Amino acid sequence: VKTEALNYLIDRTLILQEAKKEGIDIDNKTLMKHFEEIKLTFDSKEEWERSLEELELEESELFEEVRKDDIIALYLLKHGVEDVGFTEKELKEFYEENKENLRDHDKFSFYEIFFDNLEGAQIIYNLLTDIKVKSKVLKELSDRELEFLYHSDVSDHKMPLELLEMIEDTGGEKDTFLISGEDGYYVYKIVDVKPGRQISYDEIKKELAEFLIEKAKQEKVEKIVDELMDKADIRYIDTSFLEAWSGVKYKSIFPNLADFLVILIFFFLSVSIFFLSSGREKGKKVLIDTPDGR
Prior knowledge:
It is a single chain. By secondary structure, this protein is α+β, with helices and mostly antiparallel strands. The chain is 48% helix and 11% strand. The protein is built from 10 helices and 5 strands; from the N terminus they run αααααβααβαββααβ. The chain has helices spanning 2-21, 28-40, 45-55, 59-78, 88-98, 118-129, 134-143, 161-169, 201-231, 250-253; strands at residues 107-115, 149-155, 176-180, 185-194, 286-287. The chain has a 5-stranded antiparallel β-sheet with strand order 2-1-4-3-5, with helices on both faces. Helix 1 crosses helix 4 (59-78). The model is unreliable at 244-294 (pLDDT under 50).
Protein backbone atom coordinates (compact mmCIF):
# COMPACT_ATOMS: atom_id res chain seq x y z
CA VAL A 1 0.00 0.00 0.00
CA LYS A 2 2.84 2.39 0.83
CA THR A 3 4.40 1.83 -2.59
CA GLU A 4 1.08 2.49 -4.34
CA ALA A 5 0.56 5.62 -2.27
CA LEU A 6 4.04 6.89 -3.12
CA ASN A 7 3.56 6.22 -6.84
CA TYR A 8 0.20 7.97 -6.70
CA LEU A 9 1.75 11.06 -5.14
CA ILE A 10 4.67 11.10 -7.58
CA ASP A 11 2.41 10.80 -10.64
CA ARG A 12 0.10 13.46 -9.29
CA THR A 13 2.93 15.88 -8.48
CA LEU A 14 4.59 15.47 -11.87
CA ILE A 15 1.41 16.21 -13.80
CA LEU A 16 0.56 19.20 -11.60
CA GLN A 17 4.03 20.64 -12.15
CA GLU A 18 3.72 20.27 -15.92
CA ALA A 19 0.22 21.75 -15.85
CA LYS A 20 1.55 24.80 -13.99
CA LYS A 21 4.34 25.24 -16.56
CA GLU A 22 1.74 25.20 -19.34
CA GLY A 23 -0.51 27.68 -17.52
CA ILE A 24 -3.36 25.22 -17.08
CA ASP A 25 -5.80 26.14 -14.29
CA ILE A 26 -9.45 25.65 -13.36
CA ASP A 27 -11.85 28.57 -12.96
CA ASN A 28 -13.63 28.90 -9.63
CA LYS A 29 -17.14 28.55 -11.06
CA THR A 30 -16.36 25.19 -12.68
CA LEU A 31 -14.51 24.03 -9.58
CA MET A 32 -17.37 24.92 -7.25
CA LYS A 33 -19.84 23.11 -9.50
CA HIS A 34 -17.72 19.93 -9.46
CA PHE A 35 -17.30 20.10 -5.69
CA GLU A 36 -21.04 20.48 -5.14
CA GLU A 37 -21.67 17.52 -7.46
CA ILE A 38 -19.39 15.40 -5.28
CA LYS A 39 -21.27 16.44 -2.14
CA LEU A 40 -24.58 15.53 -3.79
CA THR A 41 -23.44 11.91 -4.17
CA PHE A 42 -23.90 11.56 -0.40
CA ASP A 43 -27.37 10.86 0.99
CA SER A 44 -27.18 13.54 3.64
CA LYS A 45 -25.08 16.32 5.09
CA GLU A 46 -24.39 14.08 8.08
CA GLU A 47 -23.00 11.31 5.85
CA TRP A 48 -20.76 13.84 4.10
CA GLU A 49 -19.42 15.18 7.38
CA ARG A 50 -18.95 11.65 8.75
CA SER A 51 -16.85 10.71 5.71
CA LEU A 52 -14.67 13.78 6.20
CA GLU A 53 -14.17 12.83 9.85
CA GLU A 54 -13.16 9.29 8.87
CA LEU A 55 -10.55 10.73 6.52
CA GLU A 56 -9.47 13.26 9.15
CA LEU A 57 -9.95 16.02 6.58
CA GLU A 58 -11.32 19.51 6.66
CA GLU A 59 -13.70 20.39 3.83
CA SER A 60 -11.23 23.05 2.67
CA GLU A 61 -8.49 20.40 2.35
CA LEU A 62 -10.70 18.18 0.23
CA PHE A 63 -11.69 21.18 -1.88
CA GLU A 64 -7.99 21.71 -2.66
CA GLU A 65 -7.62 18.06 -3.70
CA VAL A 66 -10.59 18.42 -6.04
CA ARG A 67 -9.00 21.54 -7.52
CA LYS A 68 -5.82 19.57 -8.23
CA ASP A 69 -7.80 16.71 -9.75
CA ASP A 70 -9.60 19.09 -12.09
CA ILE A 71 -6.33 20.67 -13.19
CA ILE A 72 -4.91 17.22 -13.87
CA ALA A 73 -8.02 16.32 -15.87
CA LEU A 74 -7.58 19.44 -18.00
CA TYR A 75 -3.92 18.62 -18.57
CA LEU A 76 -4.73 15.09 -19.69
CA LEU A 77 -7.53 16.38 -21.91
CA LYS A 78 -5.12 18.81 -23.56
CA HIS A 79 -2.67 15.98 -24.17
CA GLY A 80 -5.19 13.82 -25.98
CA VAL A 81 -6.21 11.23 -23.40
CA GLU A 82 -9.82 11.48 -24.56
CA ASP A 83 -8.91 11.18 -28.25
CA VAL A 84 -9.51 7.45 -28.60
CA GLY A 85 -11.96 5.37 -30.56
CA PHE A 86 -12.42 2.10 -32.41
CA THR A 87 -13.92 1.17 -35.75
CA GLU A 88 -16.64 -1.42 -36.22
CA LYS A 89 -14.07 -3.70 -37.81
CA GLU A 90 -11.73 -3.44 -34.81
CA LEU A 91 -14.56 -4.18 -32.38
CA LYS A 92 -15.64 -7.24 -34.35
CA GLU A 93 -12.06 -8.52 -34.50
CA PHE A 94 -11.72 -8.13 -30.74
CA TYR A 95 -15.02 -9.95 -30.23
CA GLU A 96 -13.95 -12.88 -32.42
CA GLU A 97 -10.65 -13.18 -30.57
CA ASN A 98 -12.35 -13.24 -27.17
CA LYS A 99 -15.85 -14.58 -27.75
CA GLU A 100 -15.20 -17.86 -25.93
CA ASN A 101 -14.90 -15.81 -22.75
CA LEU A 102 -17.95 -13.69 -23.47
CA ARG A 103 -20.75 -15.74 -21.97
CA ASP A 104 -23.61 -15.38 -19.53
CA HIS A 105 -23.09 -16.74 -16.04
CA ASP A 106 -22.88 -20.48 -15.57
CA LYS A 107 -25.72 -21.84 -13.43
CA PHE A 108 -25.30 -24.42 -10.68
CA SER A 109 -27.73 -26.67 -8.85
CA PHE A 110 -26.48 -28.06 -5.55
CA TYR A 111 -27.29 -29.41 -2.10
CA GLU A 112 -26.13 -27.62 1.03
CA ILE A 113 -25.98 -29.47 4.36
CA PHE A 114 -24.94 -27.80 7.61
CA PHE A 115 -23.24 -29.52 10.56
CA ASP A 116 -22.20 -28.12 13.91
CA ASN A 117 -19.41 -30.70 14.21
CA LEU A 118 -16.61 -31.82 11.89
CA GLU A 119 -17.13 -35.54 12.44
CA GLY A 120 -20.69 -35.53 11.11
CA ALA A 121 -19.75 -33.32 8.19
CA GLN A 122 -16.83 -35.60 7.32
CA ILE A 123 -19.06 -38.70 7.20
CA ILE A 124 -21.55 -37.09 4.80
CA TYR A 125 -18.77 -35.54 2.73
CA ASN A 126 -17.19 -38.98 2.18
CA LEU A 127 -20.58 -40.50 1.39
CA LEU A 128 -21.63 -37.87 -1.14
CA THR A 129 -18.22 -37.84 -2.82
CA ASP A 130 -18.88 -41.37 -4.12
CA ILE A 131 -22.40 -40.63 -5.35
CA LYS A 132 -22.73 -39.37 -8.93
CA VAL A 133 -26.49 -39.77 -9.55
CA LYS A 134 -28.67 -36.86 -8.46
CA SER A 135 -31.61 -39.02 -7.31
CA LYS A 136 -29.35 -41.07 -5.05
CA VAL A 137 -28.10 -37.91 -3.32
CA LEU A 138 -31.65 -36.97 -2.37
CA LYS A 139 -32.41 -40.54 -1.23
CA GLU A 140 -29.35 -40.74 1.03
CA LEU A 141 -30.08 -37.40 2.65
CA SER A 142 -33.74 -38.28 3.14
CA ASP A 143 -32.98 -41.76 4.51
CA ARG A 144 -30.66 -40.22 7.08
CA GLU A 145 -33.30 -37.61 7.94
CA LEU A 146 -30.82 -34.80 7.40
CA GLU A 147 -31.92 -31.22 7.02
CA PHE A 148 -30.64 -29.68 3.80
CA LEU A 149 -31.14 -26.90 1.30
CA TYR A 150 -31.45 -27.48 -2.44
CA HIS A 151 -30.38 -24.57 -4.65
CA SER A 152 -31.50 -24.68 -8.29
CA ASP A 153 -29.94 -22.79 -11.23
CA VAL A 154 -27.90 -20.37 -9.14
CA SER A 155 -25.77 -17.99 -11.23
CA ASP A 156 -22.06 -18.29 -10.49
CA HIS A 157 -21.85 -14.69 -9.23
CA LYS A 158 -24.43 -15.55 -6.54
CA MET A 159 -22.66 -18.69 -5.38
CA PRO A 160 -20.78 -18.73 -2.05
CA LEU A 161 -17.42 -17.30 -3.08
CA GLU A 162 -15.31 -20.00 -1.41
CA LEU A 163 -17.37 -22.72 -3.07
CA LEU A 164 -16.99 -21.18 -6.52
CA GLU A 165 -13.24 -20.77 -6.02
CA MET A 166 -12.93 -24.46 -5.11
CA ILE A 167 -14.93 -25.49 -8.18
CA GLU A 168 -12.68 -23.35 -10.39
CA ASP A 169 -9.51 -24.64 -8.70
CA THR A 170 -10.48 -28.24 -9.46
CA GLY A 171 -11.42 -27.45 -13.06
CA GLY A 172 -14.94 -28.72 -12.45
CA GLU A 173 -13.69 -32.28 -11.88
CA LYS A 174 -14.78 -32.32 -8.24
CA ASP A 175 -18.42 -31.98 -7.20
CA THR A 176 -18.36 -32.43 -3.41
CA PHE A 177 -16.84 -29.91 -1.02
CA LEU A 178 -16.41 -29.48 2.73
CA ILE A 179 -16.09 -25.93 4.00
CA SER A 180 -15.71 -24.64 7.55
CA GLY A 181 -17.52 -21.45 8.58
CA GLU A 182 -17.81 -19.33 11.68
CA ASP A 183 -20.89 -21.23 12.86
CA GLY A 184 -20.02 -24.77 11.78
CA TYR A 185 -19.33 -26.92 8.71
CA TYR A 186 -20.94 -27.00 5.29
CA VAL A 187 -21.05 -29.87 2.81
CA TYR A 188 -21.91 -28.94 -0.78
CA LYS A 189 -22.84 -31.40 -3.51
CA ILE A 190 -23.00 -30.06 -7.07
CA VAL A 191 -25.55 -32.04 -9.09
CA ASP A 192 -25.93 -29.96 -12.26
CA VAL A 193 -24.05 -27.25 -14.16
CA LYS A 194 -25.50 -25.30 -17.09
CA PRO A 195 -22.82 -23.45 -19.09
CA GLY A 196 -23.52 -19.80 -19.75
CA ARG A 197 -25.02 -18.83 -23.10
CA GLN A 198 -22.70 -17.33 -25.70
CA ILE A 199 -23.27 -13.56 -25.82
CA SER A 200 -23.70 -12.25 -29.36
CA TYR A 201 -21.69 -9.37 -30.80
CA ASP A 202 -24.73 -7.11 -31.05
CA GLU A 203 -25.60 -7.70 -27.39
CA ILE A 204 -22.16 -6.78 -26.11
CA LYS A 205 -20.93 -4.31 -28.70
CA LYS A 206 -21.52 -1.25 -26.50
CA GLU A 207 -19.71 -2.76 -23.49
CA LEU A 208 -16.77 -3.86 -25.64
CA ALA A 209 -16.41 -0.35 -27.03
CA GLU A 210 -16.43 1.12 -23.51
CA PHE A 211 -13.89 -1.45 -22.33
CA LEU A 212 -11.48 -0.80 -25.20
CA ILE A 213 -11.83 2.99 -24.95
CA GLU A 214 -11.11 3.00 -21.20
CA LYS A 215 -8.18 0.65 -21.75
CA ALA A 216 -6.75 2.94 -24.43
CA LYS A 217 -7.18 5.98 -22.15
CA GLN A 218 -5.34 4.21 -19.36
CA GLU A 219 -2.48 3.37 -21.71
CA LYS A 220 -2.25 7.03 -22.76
CA VAL A 221 -2.14 8.16 -19.14
CA GLU A 222 0.60 5.66 -18.38
CA LYS A 223 2.60 6.85 -21.40
CA ILE A 224 2.29 10.49 -20.30
CA VAL A 225 3.41 9.66 -16.77
CA ASP A 226 6.29 7.52 -18.03
CA GLU A 227 7.54 10.37 -20.20
CA LEU A 228 7.35 12.80 -17.28
CA MET A 229 9.15 10.29 -15.05
CA ASP A 230 11.99 9.98 -17.57
CA LYS A 231 12.56 13.74 -17.43
CA ALA A 232 12.06 14.14 -13.69
CA ASP A 233 14.67 14.30 -10.97
CA ILE A 234 12.97 12.45 -8.11
CA ARG A 235 14.63 12.26 -4.71
CA TYR A 236 13.24 10.36 -1.73
CA ILE A 237 14.14 12.56 1.24
CA ASP A 238 11.63 11.36 3.84
CA THR A 239 8.78 8.90 3.27
CA SER A 240 7.83 8.36 6.91
CA PHE A 241 4.61 10.28 6.35
CA LEU A 242 3.34 7.37 4.28
CA GLU A 243 2.86 5.33 7.45
CA ALA A 244 -0.12 7.46 8.39
CA TRP A 245 -1.03 8.88 5.00
CA SER A 246 -4.69 8.30 4.30
CA GLY A 247 -4.90 10.01 0.93
CA VAL A 248 -5.33 6.73 -0.91
CA LYS A 249 -8.73 6.48 0.74
CA TYR A 250 -9.98 9.29 -1.44
CA LYS A 251 -10.39 6.89 -4.31
CA SER A 252 -12.74 4.59 -2.40
CA ILE A 253 -14.76 7.04 -0.31
CA PHE A 254 -14.77 9.84 -2.88
CA PRO A 255 -14.82 7.93 -6.19
CA ASN A 256 -14.80 11.08 -8.31
CA LEU A 257 -11.31 11.94 -7.14
CA ALA A 258 -8.13 10.77 -8.81
CA ASP A 259 -9.98 9.64 -11.92
CA PHE A 260 -6.90 10.54 -13.97
CA LEU A 261 -5.03 7.60 -12.46
CA VAL A 262 -7.75 5.09 -11.76
CA ILE A 263 -9.69 4.42 -14.95
CA LEU A 264 -12.27 1.86 -13.97
CA ILE A 265 -12.74 -1.03 -16.40
CA PHE A 266 -16.24 -2.34 -15.79
CA PHE A 267 -16.26 -5.21 -18.23
CA PHE A 268 -13.76 -7.96 -17.47
CA LEU A 269 -12.98 -10.59 -20.07
CA SER A 270 -13.01 -13.74 -17.98
CA VAL A 271 -15.48 -16.59 -17.51
CA SER A 272 -18.21 -14.00 -17.85
CA ILE A 273 -17.87 -10.36 -18.77
CA PHE A 274 -20.60 -9.14 -16.44
CA PHE A 275 -19.34 -8.37 -12.94
CA LEU A 276 -18.01 -11.76 -11.88
CA SER A 277 -17.54 -10.66 -8.29
CA SER A 278 -20.77 -8.75 -7.81
CA GLY A 279 -23.22 -10.12 -5.30
CA ARG A 280 -20.72 -12.34 -3.52
CA GLU A 281 -20.13 -12.10 0.21
CA LYS A 282 -16.77 -13.45 1.27
CA GLY A 283 -17.20 -14.94 4.75
CA LYS A 284 -14.68 -16.52 7.05
CA LYS A 285 -14.71 -20.00 5.53
CA VAL A 286 -11.79 -22.23 4.74
CA LEU A 287 -11.27 -25.47 2.86
CA ILE A 288 -10.98 -28.53 5.09
CA ASP A 289 -8.16 -30.90 4.16
CA THR A 290 -9.78 -34.30 4.36
CA PRO A 291 -7.75 -37.24 5.73
CA ASP A 292 -8.18 -39.26 2.55
CA GLY A 293 -6.90 -36.39 0.43
CA ARG A 294 -10.16 -35.80 -1.41
